[in-house]
What does this fold into?
Amino acid sequence: MNEAIVAALAKKELPPMEPGAMCYMMSKQGYGGDSAPHWPSHLMFFYSDTDPAIWGANLPGSPVIAVADPLEHLTQFVITTQRWSDGTEDREGSVPEHHR
It folds into this structure.
C-alpha cells in the first residue's frame, strides 16, 4: 500500500493535503498500541511536505511536536492539550519521548 501511495503522489494522481486538515484525540480511553498504550490528550494538524521549523516544532520548550514523513509527503504537527474531552485535566500533558 505504501508503494502505491508513493507512486500515485509521484505521478501527481493524488492531490496535496487540504490546508488545515486536522483531527483530535482527546479521549481517556484512547489506545496507541503496545509501544504507547496511552497517549495524552492532543490535537494533530496535517500538511503536505511542510518544514516542521515553520511552526517552531521540535525545539526545546516548544509545545509543538512534528513528524515529517518524506515517503508519504506528509508532515504531522502534534500539540498536547490541558484537558480531556470530558473537561478533566490531563496531568501527563506531553507526548511520550519515543514518539517525538
